[in-house]
Amino acid sequence: METLSGHKYFRTKISASGALASILKLLDSQIRNIQGRGLKILYNLSFDIGICSQMLSLECIPKLVPFLEECSFRIETFVRY
């Protein structure tokens, strides 16, 4: 899903499937790799304004704050090799 979320066509498909709530649940994992993948998927999906509105309605911002405050997590998650 991480790869698909990077493509405009699939972003709307992912959103329409109702997967956004499940993706947000990945952030609750205690496994850092799973959290990172969830963040990458959300990052990719955030390029669609409609999906951003859905994220706001699901109140995902409070879930994102701890990850964005942790500098090392931001660097590991969003730097692409």
UniProtKB/TrEMBL annotation:
Extract the InterPro entries matched here: ARM-like, ARM-type_fold
What SUPFAM superfamilies does the database record attribute to this sequence?
A: ARM repeat
Name of the protein this chain belongs to = Armadillo-like helical protein
Please name the source species.
Answer: Rosa chinensis (China rose)
